[in-house]
Amino acid sequence: MGEKGCTILIADDEPEVVDLVRIVLEAAGYTVIAAADGEQALAQARTHKPDLILLDIRMPKMSGLTVLNYFRQDPALTAIPVIMLSVVTTYPEIRSALEQGAIAYISKPFELREMVRLIDRILAMNNAGRENLRQHALSDIGKR
Questions:
Q1: For the residues of 20-34, what is the DSSP string, one character each?
Q2: Half-sphere exposure in the Cβ direction for 33 (13 Å, CA)
Q3: Coil, helix or strand for 82?
Q4: Which sign, positive or negative, has the C-alpha torsion 14, 20, 22, 24?
Q5: For the chain, what is the mean pLDDT?
Q6: What is the mean pLDDT of residues 115-119?
Q7: Angle at 119 (CA atoms; ends 23, 50), nearest 5 degrees
Q8: Numbers of helices and strands, H then E, in the chain
Q9: In this predicted structure, what is the pLDDT of residue 11?
Q10: Least crowded by CB within 10 Å, which of 39, 83, 97, 142?
């Protein structure tokens, strides 16, 4: 179950996705904040310093990949694990997200329990474990 006091930012322009993920994550014990576009995601991350970010690739105002790039350049945000969450499943976009530092990539539609298990697992890992998970995901691209 979720770590007490852990905050997760979900950045997605689909209100139904945000609401569903919020309900599931709050039931798992997490605090959830939301952003509906890339600019809001960046502002929310800077304000709240969440423990983990779920980031959609295709969003208004600023794409998730652009937001991820900003996260990785900001010393206050660079260590926050990011899971990409998107209907975009082309290998170049998945590879780009992972190469830019996303820890994992979840394709929509997704299994909610699996998402919570992945979040629990990532939050329980140290930085070396997260990097190992990211490298494993990179090496798995195209093998499924």
A1: HHHHHHHHTT-EEEE
A2: 20
A3: strand
A4: negative
A5: 87
A6: 92
A7: 80
A8: 6, 5
A9: 94
A10: 142
